[in-house]
Each structure stands twice: as structure tokens, then as C-alpha cells.
User: Fold this.
Amino acid sequence: MKGDPVRDATYELVVRGELDERYGYLFEGMQMERVGGKTVLTGTVRDQAQLYGLIERIEELGLELLSVQQADTSPAGSGQERDEA
Amino acid sequence: MASTGDQIHAADKPPPGLLLTKLHPPPTRNQNVRRDRLLERLRPEEGVKLAVVAAPAGSGKTTLLATWREAEAERRPVGWVSLDEGDNDPVVLWSHVLEALRRVYPELETPRRPELVGASLIMDAVLPDLVNELTEHGDAALVLDDFHRLAKGPSRDSLGWLVEHAPPSFQLVVSTRSEPALPLAALRAHGELLEVRADELGFTAAEADLLLNSRLELGLSHDDIDELVRRTEGWPAGLYLAALSLGPVQDRHAFVSRFGGDSRHIVDFLVDEVLEAHDPALQALMLRSSVAERLCGPLCDALLEQEGSAEQLSELARTNLFLLPLDDRSQWYRFHHLFGQLLRVELEHREPGLAQALHERAFAWHRDHGSIEEAIEHALDAGMFAEAGDLISATWVEHTNVCRYATVLAWLERFPTRTLESSAVLLVVKAWVSSMCAMQEEATQAMTALERLDGLDQGPLPDGSSSAEASMATLRATIPFGDVGAGYENAIRASELERPESPFWPVVCWARGMGHFFRGEFVEAEPWFAEAAILGPAGGMWIIAGSALAYQSMIAGEAGDVERQKWFAEQATRLVRERGVEDIDGEVPLALGASLSARGKLDEAQPLLEESVTVLRSFGQPIDLAHALVRQARVLGALEERDAAASAIAEARATVDSCPDPGILEEWVSALERSPRKRSSRGDGELSERELAVLRALTGPLSERDIARELYLSHNTVHSHTRSIYRKLGVTSRAEAVGRARELGLL
Assistant:
């Protein structure tokens, strides 16, 4: 169950609906981009705890989460990644 | 010693923070749409042990369950608890759950109160008791609203246990935003799980019509209704937000068209509209009071620095289903969780940074009105760490008296590490509470950090002790983790550092008595226990007083004074019974058992000693446990129960070996090991005569308390027999015990 610790990885979370900038403070400095009825949140995530915190914010707002993805695979991080499927 | 150290001051006050509003489902209101197809789905079917309503925020889960409960309560008792983060402390959770069940089910006897026995005994004693009670009585159900607010940990585990062990006559019903971590797969495989999920909770066009046109009389055309359902995908909160926005609008069709064509997220679109629909005063009330979990008029007056909030709240609650009354008298309310969250976002947007000031005001209001837990939460939310720390330090004893260790530790977790590590008052609390939970490593860490600070001899602390240094000596003496020598040294230091007028003085006396006792210095121990027994009651320290009397009895026993031994044991027993702490004071049944065995009443002594061992085992302090095991082994030996005696001796040996300095216990255990052993006459699993009598009674309808009356035994004794029967038969409930006994031909 315990995933590998993510360190300073860039994540991209996509939720349905075009969200106003005012939600920005809930997503601690993530960039918000609104495209075609979706909002893409992009930013650096310190660790798993922060990632789950972001997902929880999305849940609390009743938003629909469409996808979560690590956006880049920096050389430092690539060694730690493992698919847990 | 933790069994005594666990409760430091008064026990006769009602448990703090039993929030009765958590036990009220929100009242169903006229505007609500009765969703018959879903109520039909939730109809109890034979064998369904768990019903789960799992869907995102704003899906109408709570409303559905509140309606369901209203109808269902005519058929069977249905308890209700609205969960929140505080329930991650299993003592908080089970105090509320048992109170909720008692309210709808007055016959339900739950002999042990979670706030008195603590988290460690909940799984071992409180839950098996509850399962037996539920088995004895008829049908019942319990609704746990907002199950997702429980994190991974003992509370969630205990509910998993309940689902697995509860009788088929009991049904657990939970609402949750995320898949609950309960044994779903197994229940599903056995057809014991009922699930209602998001797709079913979405409003159909017909239901939307019922809400918007019949209930709220908005007079929308079918096309507009269809458009709203399409745009919100039937999401109930979205539809209701639309309804609130539509209220004051003249051209509703134009609004719906605009809504349908807007690419903004529906929530964004609607929150603006909903707020605009109210006058500025109500807008301010909604936005600024959103920082509080529960609202009442005076609290809102304080938050908004105004008067008349109570009338505003009741006006708002009449027209807005997102403000839910929490009691019948319209005093307390809460916002629908999703709506509250949207308001907080809007507050930050319109008045950036104001939330901090609002939390500060909420902190001051709760502090002044005695709702300490909420005051602490708001202080932490506001980042007022000094104020939060002082309040925790001043009140930690009250919280630990009702066994809310996890609550206090969770507060400490919220401090930045550097703040915590530089605060003597907080490190003192951390060291005490960790020790009480037998978390030795955390306790040691806190004490090590404390020793690095200056000014530890400066005092007094907000909890009334003379200094951090005095408090640490008292702690190390009270809970010495198996080190009799170190405990003794610290007891001497504590009696020099602490002032006799400190609320901790009886604890110091008791610890000093313990230090002497386990070094075998019984004569020296006696006056310290006598002082603790006399001073304890004045400070409401019933466990300290009861335990001190128990040791006075055992000291008389060591001197061969059987009469004095009996007198003190009976005083101790009376005291803890009168004060309702008999289930946790492990030394009292120990002393009474020892006194009975000294007068040859071995059969009566044995269950008391068993009870004592069970209690002390759960507290994780090796000296106390080994002591009880020694006395139990002696009586079992005299009763010729050789196997049971051997196993008690073996456990005592292992326990003593885990102690850095076991004091006189080494000698006592060695003496038992040297005593001659005979071969067992009885098999290990065989039931004694008394146990067979209790077992026969268990087949009938009587509760443990009634059986005790019938057999002229105390309730505790019957309880010990029952536990022992379960253990020997390898079962966990009364029904299983009877079944197994029938299989074995014991009945």
C-alpha cells in the first residue's frame, strides 16, 4: 500500500468544470488553467501527504476528479517511480 | 501504575465534550423531496448487516438517511451519530455511539463506559459487552453520518470489528464520500451488504420537478427543468443552489438559459447568485460564520461583532436548506458541509485574511463559554500557538480523566515541531499523555526534549504543578515503565519539588508509596498511601484514593493483619463503586481478592484476581501486571488449577523479565517458580463449577447484571466468569458461547 515517497514532483490534476481563480488558495500555489469545460491544476507536490490533501480539497468542493498524473519525470525522480498496478 | 496515573483529578464530573447535537439527525423539512425509490432501496432486508450510502458531497446522503430513519424508527430503535474528526479518538466515538443507542434503546445495558475504561479496553471489553447486549435484545440500527471523516486508525478498526461481530438483528448504516474501509468484500460475498451510490442519488427530471416546482414553487417549464438537470447532471446540491439563485429572479427562463450556456463551473456560477439573493447583512453572516463548525446566535454575534444574529440564523434556516438546525430549540445550527466549504472559499476571495481574525474571535468566545475543545481547535486554526498551548496545559487533566488521550495527542500534533520542542508546558503534557498510553518511546522523546530547555524549575505550570521539573519527577515516579529503582528515586525528588497544596500532591504521595512498596518497604510505604487515601477524595481523585486504600489493605496482609486487610479492601471497593471507577482501578479487585484468599475464600478470590489482571494487562505497565499475576498464580495454585497457575507464573516471569528493575517482584515470581508442581487434574479448557452455573444462566434471557443478582455474585464477578468462559470455549459472544457449549455437550 505504501507508495514510494514522491519528492518535489510536478503533478497535474484535472477536474470537470471551469473553476474560478478564487479557489487558488485552497490548492496552495497550483497553477489553474481552464480549458474546454475542465480545470487543470499544475504544480509541484512535496510528498504523498500533500497530494492526498489536494485530492481531499477537490472532494470537499464536490468537484469531479477526472485524472491525476505526474507531469514530468525528472532524472532524480525516475529511479523511485514504480507502477503499483 | 498507569491504571491509577491514568486518572489524576476528578472523575465525578460529566464527561466533557459529549456533544448532544451530534446525536440528532437534521430534521426533515417540508421543502425536502421524499425520495421513495431510494427509501425502498434502503428497506431492511433479512441478513443485511451494513448499508452504505456512498456519494460525493452534496448528493443528499444525510437528508436521505434522516428521512429513512424517521420512517424506520417506528419499526425498531435507530441511533444516529454525525461523525467528525474528533471521533478519531475511539473514546470520543464510542461515548457518542453508546449514548446514541441508549437514547433510542433504554433497555440496552452497556456496563462499561468508554470514557472510564479508555481506548485500550474498548475493543476488549466495551465492544464485546455491546455485541452481547445487542444479541440479547431485538432489532436495532445505527446510522453513522459522514463516515469519511474517520481516518485510518483505531476508531475505524473498531467499527470494522463491530460489523463483523454484530448479530444479524443489528444493522449499521453509513453515509460516506469515499469507499468506507470496512470489510465490504466479505459482506458483499455473503449478501450482507446494501449499497446506494452516486448514480442512484442523482435527481431525475421528475424529482427535480417535485423539488423546484411543487416544493419551492418556482414555476419552471419542463424544458427549463431538463436543462437544469442536464447542466447539474442531477447533482442535488447543484440543483438546490440553482433553486436558491432562482428565488428572487424575475425572468427564470432567461436565468436557466444563461446558466446552461455558461462555461464556468456550476458552483462558481451559483454561489455568486445565491449570495446576491440575500441582503448584505445575511451575506456577511453566512460568509463570516462559515469558519465555525457549529453556530449559535451569541457565537455569531461575537464573530460579526454585532447583535441579533440569533434571529438572522432562524430566518436563514427557514428559507435555506443548507443551514441545518442541530437541536429542537433552534439554538445550534451547522452549514451543509459543502455549502460551508464554498462559503469559506468566498470569504477568502472577498475578505482575504479575515478568516484568521474570525478564528481568533471564535477561540475567545468558546474559551469564555467553557467549550474548551472548540476553543483549542480555533486557536490552532488561527495559529495562536501560545494561547492554544496554555489552554491545553490548563485542561489536559480534564481530558485524560475521560481517557481522551488520542484527542490531546492530536492537538499536540498540530503544533509546528519547533514550537512544541521549545515549549516546556507542551512537552510536559506530551510526556504525561504518551506515558498514560504506554507509548514509552514518545514519552522518552518528550522528556529528552524537555531536558534541553532552561528554566524547568520555574513554575508553576497552568495545570497547577509546581514546575516542569516537579511534574517530570512525578510522572517518572507514577509511570516508571518497569523500573522500580528509578521510580523510587523520582518519587523522592517529586516529594521534595512538589508543594503539598499542588493538585498533584496526592499523586506524589501515592507514587512515593508505590516506590517503597515494590522495594518491599511496606512499613515505609504505609503513611504515604494513607496520605494519598485521605487527600485524594478532596481533589476528586477517586482512583488514586481507591488504589491507595487497596495498597493499605495489601500492606496489612503482608503484616498478617487479616481484619485490617479486609477493612481497607472493603473501603477501597466501596469508594470505587460509589464513584463509578470500579472498572479501571485494577488494584482494588486485586486487594479484595487477596483479602478473600487470606481468609480461605479462594473461589471468590479467583474471579476478582482475573478481573484485576485483565484491567492491568490493558494498561501496559509491567510492575502492576506482574504483581497481579503473582497473586493470581498463588490462588490458582491453592485451588489446584495447576495449568492456569503455570500459565500465570509464565506470564509473570516474562513480564518481570521485561522490567529494567522489577524490585521485590523478582523474589515473588522466583518463589512461585520454586513451588512444587503437580500434573494437571483438569484439562486447560475445562469450565469450573461456578463457570458452568454462569454458562447455564447465559442460555436464558437475563442480562449479566440480572444473572449476578440471581447467583448472588457481583456484576464484575459474573463478567469475569463470562470472559473466562469465552476464552476457554474460544468464542467472542454470548450466542457463540451457548452454541459451542451445546456442541461440546456442556449444556
